[in-house]
Amino acid sequence: MSASQSDVPSAGACSACGAAVGGSLRCASCGALLPADESDAFSLLGVAPVFDLAADDLRRCWLARVRQVHPDRARSDEERMRSQRLAALLNDAYTALQDPISRADRLLNRSGGPDASIERGMDPLLLAESLEIREALSEAVSPESAATIRSDLAARLEEALIKVAEGARALPGDAEHRVALRRELNGATLLLRLMSQTEGGQERDVRHA
Amino acid sequence: MSATPDTIIGIDLGTTYSLVAVPGPGGPRVLRDASGDARLPSVVTLRPTAGAGLQVEVGWAARSGIVQSAGASVHSVKRLIGRSLSDVQAELPFLAYPVAAGPRDTLQVRLAGRDFTPQELSAFVLRALRERAIAALGHDVRRAVITVPAYFDDVQRQATRQAAELAGLDVVRIINEPTAAALAYGIGLRAKDRGRPHTVVVYDLGGGTFDVSVLRIDGDVFEVLSTAGDTHLGGDDFDLLLMKRLAGDDAASLAAGGVDAAQRAALRQAAESAKVRLSEADEAEVEFSLPGAGLTRKRVRRAELEALCAPLIDRTLAHCDAALRDAGIVVAELDEVVLVGGSTRMPLVRRRVEQHFGRRPCTALNPDEVVALGAAMQAAVLSGGSTDLLLLDVTPLSLGIETMGGAVGKLILRNTTIPCRAVESFTTFVDGQTAILVRVLQGERELAADCRELARFELRGIPPMPAGIPKVEVEFLIDANGILNVAARELRSGQSAGVQVLPNRGLTDDEVRRAVVESQQHAAADALTHRLIDLCNQVDFDTQKAEQMLARHGDRLPREERARIEREMAALRTRAAEARRDPRQTDADALHRALTDFGHGTLTLAEIGIREALAEATK
């Protein structure tokens, strides 16, 4: 996963953890849960909004935040309900930011880029090829031919992820750049879905946001 | 003696045995009966008494009388709880009690001329555990952490919570059995090698259920990476296979219900006892009788039993592989494999697990007691006692809703860290429609018909608008207990709190409340005697222990103190004997106080004993 890349700019801002980016989720003096920006995974977890996040740092920030809000520490039913929700949001944000595709997706949305429901386009060549791949997959009878398709897909996905990473690092950029990144993301998502189809029909549903 | 009046207890409600443990300053401890056994058989015998009362027997007495009181005794209720009749059809002929369908897909057991829900029957066991805790702690107990198999679905978890409510216990937290075991083991792991994260597999084969969990233990953080299992695979299934083998040609008539309850119960007991003996010996002899055959005596060899059970062990190992796959861990990365549950005493299980993981599994803690200990540790966290522990579990099954054409749209994938949530929007199909039906499903299959229906929620109170205009946003939140909470709001009209969510599966809260009242009426009289029995047992245990200590370390005490303890010991024993002779005339609270005072009066002696034991251990 690309989050383990070493050129980490500012996720370290949180390694002190009490003084995380965006502040704590719980008041240090009175212990009350503080309001949080639920729509932004980065500020929820207290990490810098950048593409290159080290997996270890991300995990440490997540654990520190979960510890702050964990329902086991709630002092009333009302607080328990709120902390359940907040903990669920933190877990969701952590899952999202671990994955390079959805990390880039969140960054793009944060930079005012077009949502996947608005910009649905992708590289026309890839779209055409994907139809061929799908056909080949349905005809692939031998395990060898399935494996060939699979390794071809894996190579394409790797390439697509490099482009996504480059695009995400250059955010916010101009409007054109953001549309281009959305199209790259759409292509990567399609490749991912094709990959999962080679894994014996166990297609992992796309998470509902 | 720390007598905080608000102790949260830890309960392991098992298929075959149940246990209770309490947090303590020196770590959790399981509570034992007078003979030193922490296990309470999960067996209940109910007999009608004069009037409308019930005579309730729980535990060893009920278990040893299971053959004579066939038709009045229930065992393995955990396999029924939160299930419907069709879920358990296959094993009904082998149960020594009659099961029938209840309202809304629930099931009921007919005993002593009354229908009982599995919740009510489990409540008898839970009440006995609660009484044991009250007797040991010296104050009332109202709150508990209760464990369930990791693979229990939402309905089974809800039902377990209802059972605890019936027993007068507020469940502050439900935790998964393998996770509880990891908590109990984790302390040792942390002490051994601090600073490095450990990846641990917990293989938990109990009386009725199998779970496997893969955990990462990193300092104070216990993070479950994945879990898999089968809520219908355990020691009971080994017993069933052996029953069929023993019955030989009569197996068909056994399966068809042609054997009466007493004979079934006897055969079951013979099979179970043979199984247990075969963990030590190569051969066991069993005696049983079947209709028309008289008394039969057979020899069973361990190899025979192992051949019967091998396919079931294969299934458990397949679940292990699935859990590792979901966790993204390979066998070589594992630091430890831990065995939990009574059925892991079988040599076959130990051998196969060792082969599969290429390492000797860890069995340092008593496999029967480790889950209850873990529950008590979590109880300590929740009481604010030890706040550095962080437990992160996962939901064992994917959660989805039925979409067009009976397919399943997954909202939350299995092995997602809990709490977790998903939001989904619904709309109407007809002008003026004010209600929407939502089917919530749990399971891994693609079609709704193959998944377990958790609930059919009706979203009511949608303001009448043209079709497709209302936008009802439904939030599905799986809480830290693995239980689903659903909230809905209509966005277009701004009536955020207007939409009601009405569940219609399992028992409603009203039905549970009614059952609470009924069972309390039945139980009021029984509870008193029950409490006294436990108190007297505790007196036996404590005085016996004090006597031993006096013999060993008495010379370290001043002569007067020694004489005082001997005097108080004799007085306490007399009181217990009187209580046993005439329970109705005994003041249980007074006996309780006397027991607590005795505990305080022997503190110095106990401290000497502990110091000696520690010195002995570190020599």
Q: Could you explain the architecture of this structure?
A:
The complex is a heterodimer of chains A (about 210) and B (about 625). With about 210 residues, chain A is mainly alpha-helical. Chain A folds into two domains: about 1-100, DnaJ domain (Helix Hairpins); about 125-200. Chain A contains seven helices and no strands. Chain A has helices spanning about 40-45, 55-70, 75-100, 100-110, 125-140, 145-170, 175-200. Chain A is elongated, with a radius of gyration of 20 Å. Chain B is an alpha+beta fold and about 625 residues long. Chain B has five domains: about 10-180 and about 375-380, Nucleotidyltransferase, domain 5 (2-Layer Sandwich); about 190-235 and about 310-370, ATPase, nucleotide binding domain (Nucleotidyltransferase, domain 5); about 235-310, Alpha-Beta Complex (Actin, Chain A, domain 4), CATH 3.90.640; about 400-505, Sandwich (Substrate Binding Domain Of DNAk, Chain A, domain 1); about 525-619, Substrate Binding Domain Of Dnak, Chain:A, Domain 2 (Up-down Bundle). Chain B is about 40% helix and about 25% strand. Chain B contains 15 helices and 27 strands. In chain B, strand 14 (about 210-220) and strand 15 (about 220-230) form a beta hairpin. In chain B, helix 12 (about 510-555) packs parallel to helix 14 (about 590-600). The longest helix of chain B is centred in the C-terminal third of the chain and has 45 residues, at about 510-555. Chain B is globular. The model of chain B has no long low-confidence stretch (mean pLDDT about 85).
